[in-house]
Write a structure and sequence with these properties.
- This protein is α/β, with parallel strands linked by helices and about 160 residues long.
- The protein is about 30% helix and about 30% strand.
- Strands 1, 2, 3, 4, 5, 6 and 7 form a 7-stranded mixed β-sheet that branches.
- It is elongated and about 55 Å long.
- It starts with a strand and ends with a helix.
Length: about 160
Amino acid sequence: MLFGLVGELTDADLRGLESREVGRDSLQLMAPRSHPLLTRNKLSPSDFRQQTLLMRPPGSSIRTRAESMLASILGHFHHVVELNSGEAIKEAVLAGLGLAVLSTWSVRRELQEGLIVPLDSQRWNQLRPIYLIRRAGRPLRGQVAFLWDFLASDIGAAQSFTP
């Protein structure tokens, strides 16, 4: 790996890495547009008793944030299903198979088209920084160096990574 984009970094994760924050996205509890909970004004934990929650596996930054964000209702879901792929989770939400905490980056088009809708976006919404990372001290060359410099610049971050 020459460099990558990650959603969260702990100090331990940063050992041996150079990082630059290049943007922020929002993690929100999402449902398909036809979901019955979208018609309710105020949701309580009991509203989730018949619902399925789709989650990333432990170790994912989205999983960690989802568990924190949904702590008051997490034990009320009828089923919690783990899927390894963010794309698979998005498709499962679109198909009406459950609710999920999703990144607004990954569902931008679906949000704009009204296919996926946040559930109580004031309550279940967290900003998350996005970092560009690479191994510290490892020089980048050619097009890879150009791309790193562009993405790490204020202009590149604003043009490429604004959620």
